[in-house]
């Protein structure tokens, strides 16, 4: 009699998944054993208790007989076809000889900005198969142009506290239905389920628009980078693992330093991020010697400062992070060889690829981080510098002739 909001929801047919999504992993399903304090699903002789003041949404996929059940003051049961609850009639139930009190675990601690609670999925809702690609930590959480999917026939509850006023997304799929327009999402938010599934001070907004720039778009999670890193460090004992290399590197958007290489590329309007990633995968990373190397590539914004202290602005660049999962003595050497190969390719084909310059840092080098690859970078920019000098000399000559009266 104390229940304020318990409802039954009919389920739409699942929609086909045709794009790459970031998929939420946890659920609050009745039949998920880890959602109960006993580590098992309640059986007929059990007394089921939900926390009185904990808001919850629970998907129920099958019928259950129970001795008793205490409901929350505010929540919902989403019942699949044929699912429901009946009172235990005292008959023998295999595997449930002695009843117990079974409590549903609270889901308030699941946060949107926890990278460990998301996975990238592709066609058919299976994990991405390309073992060469990984994401820096900020990009493991849905970015502003990403599609988000919550698996059909699952319930959930997420804390969306954020440092941003609005968390932008391309689309959100719930119960097999894709919401890909602002109007469809606003309509869903006005329904009874949304406040039970999402809580916190953040606001999710579906835009229905893709990244408009072929050179890529920044993820947009930088304002919540501290939340992302706090979640990761909490899961790993509140500290980053100790790097095994001499000069560990700190990629932008990543929580901990890494052993490997970082390449920063300046680009022109002709640069195409997807085509360039495909080129690296096909031409370089496909070689057997690079089998253990993983790459993260994306557009990031690097902060610029005046005199190294005063914040001035931010500059967009393409960041390539290379790490090696191997354990042999050649691990660092392999990454350095690949980084040098990428820089050599840029030196030869950078203009055609829309790349104006590049800089390489390698953690395994005995020289200070950042020196390795500088000679290759200088080759890339040498033509530009010579062109500028020639232009200045030409302009000076014209100005001299004009003042002499020899040029009108």
Automatic annotation (TrEMBL):
It is found in: Cell membrane. The keyword Transcription regulation does not apply. Its main location: membrane. GO terms for cellular component: apical plasma membrane; endocytic vesicle. The keyword Signal applies. The chain crosses the membrane at residues 380-402. It is a single-pass type I membrane protein. It comes from the Eukaryota. Keywords: Cell membrane, Membrane, Protein transport, Signal, Transmembrane, Transmembrane helix, Transport. One of its GO terms (biological process) is protein transport. It holds the Pfam family Amnionless. This is Protein amnionless. It comes from Tricholaema leucomelas. The gene is Amn.
